[in-house]
TrEMBL record:
PANTHER family: FMN-DEPENDENT NADH-AZOREDUCTASE 1 (PTHR43741), FMN-DEPENDENT NADH:QUINONE OXIDOREDUCTASE (PTHR43741:SF2). The keyword 4Fe-4S does not apply. Its cofactor is FMN. Belongs to the azoreductase type 1 family. Residues 3-195 form the Flavodoxin-like fold domain. It catalyses: N,N-dimethyl-1,4-phenylenediamine + anthranilate + 2 NAD(+) = 2-(4-dimethylaminophenyl)diazenylbenzoate + 2 NADH + 2 H(+); 2 a quinone + NADH + H(+) = 2 a 1,4-benzosemiquinone + NAD(+). This is FMN dependent NADH:quinone oxidoreductase. Keywords: Flavoprotein, FMN, NAD, Oxidoreductase.
Length: 197
């Protein structure tokens, strides 16, 4: 059974433009995969704690030596990772905040990137272990920054780092420029959704 994991990060939650685009993709995907499952994670409604020394040490402490608190931290991270492991398709809705991704997404990524779990170090460099998945990323921005912006590069690099290299990024830019620019950008993004699904 095919499974899609939808991750939204907008502070406006379901009303954010990136969330709306991700939801449209998920809905269209569900319509074309009636036997499939859609799981959702809202990082604003349920923010992941920021990585601190105690959490990092929990990840690197050998399993047999972990305290009860450390086991709880690792179990939480394992559950986040398992959602991705079970998914065939990841859909991310990501607005631009201060030229980067929302801090909630960065905190989430910090709990996903685990050596020996989602990636491993090799003599040739790091190797992602979550292979064979597709990611569709909707990035929304108030102005125009282009597809080669560092925000886009970061998202693509992180997904590749954990093994997800089949990545489609859809930008909707100029959303704060004016009504005409916003509708044009969102219309183009919706058209791209129909092509991708």
């Amino acid at each position: 059974m095919a499974k899609l994991l939808k991750i939204q990060t907008s502070i406006f939650q379901n009303d954010g433009q990136s969330s709306l685009l991700a939801e449209q993709f998920a809905s269209d995907w569900q319509a074309r995969n009636p036997g499939g499952q859609v799981a959702s994670r809202d990082l604003t409604a349920e923010p992941v704690p920021h990585l601190d020394l105690a959490r990092f040490q929990s990840f690197i402490t050998p399993e047999a030596e972990r305290s009860a608190e450390q086991k709880a931290v690792v179990s939480y991270s394992d559950a986040l990772i398992e959602e991705i492991v079970e998914a065939d398709v990841l859909v991310l809705g990501i607005p631009m905040y201060n030229f980067s991704v929302p801090s909630t997404l960065r905190a989430y990524f910090d709990h996903i990137a685990r050596a020996g779990v989602t990636f491993q170090y090799t003599p040739e460099g790091p190797e992602g272990l979550l292979k064979g998945k597709k990611a569709v990323v909707f990035i929304t921005r108030g102005s125009h920054y282009g597809e080669d912006h560092s925000q886009t590069a970061f998202v693509r690099q992180f997904l590749g780092f954990i093994g997800i290299t089949d990545v489609e990024i859809v930008h909707a830019e100029g959303l704060a420029v004016g009504d005409e620019a916003r509708e044009k950008a969102l219309g183009a993004a919706r058209k791209r959704i129909s092509q991708l699904v």
